[in-house]
Specification:
With 105 residues, the protein is α+β, with helices and mostly antiparallel strands. The chain is built from 4 helices and 5 strands, in the order E-H-H-E-E-H-H-E-E. The protein starts with a strand and ends with a strand.
């Protein structure tokens, strides 16, 4: 059962935050973690101060391991450096019917 986490980073320097995450190799290290399916940033066409992170994991256990990794400290420091705020939405895939359904937390 996959987990999709949508994180909306808000702040005038949100693009700089995402750029430094990529340039420092943090994004590549997260993508290399066991259980990570997708970790990609997207930019709004309407709001220059918002960046969306699409973060998909195989299961809760993989996400929990990621949250306990040293990279989380690096991410927090960059969030503070660029003063970005987060809006987080978590979706969990449910299997067992003909149609895939999702629960949004």
């Amino acid at each position: 059962m996959t987990l999709t986490i949508n994180i909306l980073y808000k702040g005038k320097d949100s693009k700089k935050f995402a750029k430094e995450m990529t340039e420092k190799g943090i994004v590549d290290r997260i993508r290399a973690q066991k259980g990570n399916i997708k970790y990609e940033y997207y930019q709004s066409l309407e709001k220059d101060d918002e960046i969306l992170l699409l973060d998909i994991w195989e299961n809760q256990e993989a996400l929990d391991i990621h949250h306990q990794s040293p990279m989380m400290g690096e991410i927090m420091k960059l969030r503070e450096k660029y003063d970005v705020k987060m809006e987080v939405h978590k979706c969990q895939e449910i299997k067992g019917s003909n149609d895939d359904k999702y629960i949004r937390n």
